[in-house]
Design goal:
The relative contact order is 0.19. Helix 1 (25-35) runs parallel beside helix 2. The protein is built from three helices and five strands; from the N terminus they run ββαβαβαβ. The longest helix has 16 residues, at 55-70. Strands 1-2-3-4-5 form a five-stranded mixed β-sheet, with helices on both faces. Helix content is 36%, strand content 36%. The chain is an alpha/beta fold and 101 residues long.
Length: 101
């Protein structure tokens, strides 16, 4: 998994590419370290470049949500591909995350 972070001062935009799974754990931890310290802002995860997500990847998103919530920030998931959206739908992630298609 690769990621890019763009901070415009009022919101943070994170672009995810590749696969969000067990193999992405180390990269995702680097992302969380980079997001550490963001307070009271909206963080958008652009998921159109994400080709696959599994249960570990979902767990990583939940960890990100918890970490960001502790500092008053919120998270939204935008533009997931059909297969990624299906996984989010099957796991009822919409009850926890704001998801925009």
């Amino acid at each position: 998994m690769q990621f890019r972070v763009k901070d415009d001062g009022s919101a943070v935009h994170v672009s995810l590419e590749g696969q969000l799974n067990f193999a992405a754990n180390e990269d995702f931890q680097s992302l969380l370290t980079q997001l550490n310290g963001i307070k009271n802002r909206k963080v958008t995860f652009e998921m159109s470049g994400l080709s696959h997500i599994d249960s570990v990847g979902l767990g990583l998103l939940y960890i990100a949500r918890e970490d960001l919530a502790e500092s008053g920030s919120s998270i939204s998931l935008v533009n997931p591909r059909d297969n990624v959206f299906r996984m989010l739908e099957l796991t009822e992630a919409h009850k926890t995350f704001e998801i925009k298609r």
